[in-house]
Please model this.
Amino acid sequence: MALLSANCIICERTLRETDSVISAIRVVDVFRTQVSAEIPVERQVVPMNVVAIIRLSSDDDTLHTVELAIIRPDGETTPNTLASNVVAPPGTNPDYPRVLFVIGALGVTPRQFGLHHIVIYLDGAEVARTQFTLEEMPEVPTPNSETLPN
Model:
């Protein structure tokens, strides 16, 4: 097996078309969220998707495991397995590289704000890394009869 390249993209949504083409919709690097004091923070999540694109040599027909980890600003790491025992399908030409497209839907709990890292591992080795910023928006007070103008 020879790893040729690996990339990852963070976006709001993904689509897998009928012809197996993947579309990343609204590629972003800053997620803004309001945290409600009335709901436990563990029940609040910021949804996002990660698309991992891993290119392997044309002769690679081995089983692979693709994992993702989120590293918080304080260094806390949360691992997730995206795919286990997967084989990159051969290309339309036997000389073309094999490609693994792996999509992961994430819900990030807004416990920490600032720069977060997403790391992609192939068979336990880091192959790609990207970042996103989680930014807190102030909670807007709900108007009540005492604060409304007469």
Remarks:
- The mean pLDDT is 89.
- The domain at 3-137 is CATH 2.60.40.1930 (Immunoglobulin-like).
